[in-house]
Amino acid sequence: MNSQNHASPQKLSSKPAWAYVWHVWKVIIPRRSITGRLVYGLVLRRHNGRRWIYKNLAKYDPED
């Protein structure tokens, strides 16, 4: 049987869907942001494949 006739399986990403988006997270212990500053309270968080990265959240009002 010739293996070139078979379609190769598509490469699937091993990252879960939530890892591709920023989400609001409450940080109690200060963490370093992308810029190197300490952030705490409500922040944006995303996983980059190796570790969590954080961004300062300018304003978030869940009732809007």
Description:
With 64 residues, this protein is an all-beta fold. The chain has one domain (18-64). The protein has strands spanning 23-32, 38-47, 52-56. The chain has a 3-stranded antiparallel beta sheet with strand order 1-2-3, with no helix packed on it. The N and C termini lie far apart (62 Å).
Topology readout:
Layout lengths: L22 E10 L5 E10 L4 E5 L8
Describe the biggest sheet? 3 strands, antiparallel
Q: Radius of gyration over alpha carbons?
A: 19 Å
Unreliable parts: none
Q: Helix and strand succession? A: EEE
Strand content: 35-45%
Rounded average pLDDT: 78
Structural class: mainly beta
Question: How many structural domains in the coordinates?
Answer: 1
- Biggest sheet strand order reads 1-2-3
